[in-house]
Design goal:
Layout lengths: L1 H17 L12 E7 L14 E2 L7 E9 L5 E9 L5 E7 L5 E5 L2 E10 L6 E9 L8 E13 L2 E5 L4 E4 L11 E2 L4 E3 L6 E4 L8 E5 L3 E5 L9 E9 L2 E9 L11 E5 L2 E4 L3
Parallel strand pairs: 2-11
Antiparallel strand pairs: 1-3, 3-8, 4-7, 4-9, 5-8, 6-7, 9-10, 9-11, 12-20, 13-19, 14-18, 15-20, 16-17, 16-19, 17-18
Length: about 270
């Protein structure tokens, strides 16, 4: 047992030597993302693309999951380095039971194994828990990833970066003094998850305000609007929103009906000019 632990420690030190050294290995095109666990629990190891939330108080727990998609080889180790304001958050732990050995750091973790690990189809690489170090009620802040090192061996690794962040405590529309925009953005689409809406009125420097949940699907063959499914929409950056059906409000139309399109009713932006 001591020999095995010593070997794991040696592997991890080798991985640390590669952290920050970008290379064009077999996983150079992998992508990394963060997913907020809304209830702060164990999560489901599936990227639900939750990238915003509201938290308050001190010593409040925040839980996220980290994913790497497009990984084509088994991994001997993973190094995850988060990016956050240390006056707001502290990292408590990062876990992945697939890797038997872990060395924690103040801003991340180093995973290692003697038997290469093949990631699940979801790309799950870790569950992380943070806590607030001050009362952050009403304070805007973000949590991101500085880099993820995917190591096939101690001699081969890829360093992946991302601009994906989780935003906390974004102001609601009532806190904006900027202009109010009424949007009537429509896209024809099957009623499926991960549809994207673009806000054409958005300009550089605009701030996204409140994201209304009154998105609907309707049958395009009807002359009058037919409310069928309520949708939840979530800002995923640069004026794009991801839509997901969350409830059936009594219509007989199935979610899979392809004659439906999403209908966005209201959205607010704050504009300095």
């Amino acid at each position: 047992m001591l020999l095995k632990k010593g070997l794991l420690f040696t592997i991890t030190l080798a991985l640390l030597a590669f952290a920050g050294q970008a290379s064009a290995g077999p996983n150079a095109n992998a992508t990394v993302s963060l997913d907020l666990i809304s209830d702060g629990g164990a999560g489901n190891q599936i990227d639900n693309r939750v990238t915003s939330g509201t938290v308050s108080g001190q010593d409040t727990k925040i839980a996220v999951e980290v994913f790497a998609k497009g990984v084509t080889t088994p991994l001997a180790g993973v190094v995850i380095i988060f990016e956050f304001d240390a006056s707001v958050l502290k990292l408590d732990k990062v876990e992945n039971s697939a890797f038997p050995f872990a060395i924690p750091e103040p801003t991340g973790v180093n995973f290692a194994t003697t038997t290469p690990v093949t990631l699940p189809s979801s790309g799950f690489i870790g569950h992380a828990e943070f806590s607030t170090v001050a009362d952050i009620t009403g304070k805007e802040f973000t949590l991101g990833i500085k880099a993820v090192t995917l190591a096939q061996s101690s001699a081969s690794s890829d360093v992946i970066t991302t601009t994906n962040v989780i935003s906390f405590n974004e102001p609601t529309s009532g806190e904006f003094a900027g202009m109010q925009l009424h949007l009537d953005t429509q896209i024809e689409t099957p009623a499926a998850y991960n549809n994207t809406l673009t806000i054409p009125e958005q300009k550089a420097g605009d701030t996204i305000g409140r994201r209304q949940t009154d998105l609907w699907l309707r049958n395009r063959t009807r002359s009058a609007r037919q409310d069928i499914f309520q949708l939840h929409w979530q800002h995923i950056g640069q004026g794009f929103y991801r839509c997901s059906p969350v409830s059936d409000i009594g219509s007989s139309y199935p979610v899979s009906t392809t004659a439906l399109y999403s209908y966005c009713t209201r959205q607010w932006l704050s504009r300095s000019d």
